[in-house]
Amino acid sequence: MPALVSVIWVYFGWSLLLGINFTVFQAAVIALVALYSAFIAEIYRAALEAIPRGQREAGLAVGMTPFKVFMRITLPQATKIAIPNIGSMFIGMVKDTSVFTIIGLLELTRVTQNINSVTFQPFVLYTAAAALYVVAAFAIDFLFRAIEKTLTTPPQGRIAHALHGRRRRRVEQVVRDFQAGAAQA
Amino acid sequence: MLASYQWSLIWDHRADFLQGLKVALEVSLVAMVLSVVVGILLALARMSKPPLSWLGAAYINVFR
Questions:
Q1: pLDDT tens across B13-56, in order?
Q2: What span, in angstroms and rounded, lies between the C-alpha atoms of B62 and A140?
Q3: A154: which DSSP letter?
Q4: ipTM for this prediction
Q5: B interface mutation test: which of A97, A100, A105 has the most B CBs within 10 A?
């Protein structure tokens, strides 16, 4: 379903049929979520299926509940795989906001139209709008690359050391307990 | 002809442009967070046993 059809359906369709009136912002968000959650579901399905079965089995074997196994083992690893694709979905979303001009959301394209209707300089103004979309896309791409890098490389340096302090101390405690148990045996 | 391009308009309306970009980013950020949550739930529905997986597959295939 195209984004344009999706917003008109949510903003005008639901209002007429069900009497639910959204603000333009809410309608825009709902339209995007309706569309992109389907794409993200497919991304996550592929990512979840890429996790070896043994990971889940190991979690269950140490006595974790299925929910805990999902939250602590399967989902974090799947997210690591899914992040680059989610980034490109995000860039697609930012560009798709331009169709919300149709319901009067004051986003970049609508603002450009408004300025143009007073100044009649379409070439100049839409060049500026295009440049801003490109800059935003580059920024998001950079951000998601950074997230991907921090998720896929082990934490290093003093800041990471401090941030992971609680978890590290807990692991060290488990190791000490194990060694104490082994010494007694 | 060429002289009629007023590039200074971009700078004059910089606040409006940036406000517009801010709204576009806000909408997509909120939508991104929500669709990751909904997407994970849909992926789980899709991977579960038949009655629920059909619903998930139907939604995904209709909206994609």
A1: 999 999 999 999 999 999 999 999 999 999 999 998 888 899 99
A2: 28
A3: P
A4: 0.89
A5: A97
Amino acid, single-letter form, for residue A113? Q
Nearest to A76 by CA among B40, B55, B27: B40
Dihedral of the CA atoms A5, A32, A13, B22 (nearest 10)? Answer: -100
And the tokens for A140?
């998001």
Letter for the amino acid at A11? Y
The whole-model pTM stands at: 0.83
Which residues 41-80 on chain A approach chain B with CB closer than 8 angstroms? 41-45, 48-49, 75
Asked if residues B24 and A107 have their Cβ atoms less than 8 Å apart, the reply is: yes
In this structure, are residues B36 and A86 in contact, taking their beta carbons and an 8 Å threshold?
Answer: yes
Q: Which residue type occupies A124?
A: V
Which domains are delineated in chain A?
3-51+84-153 (1.10.3720.10)
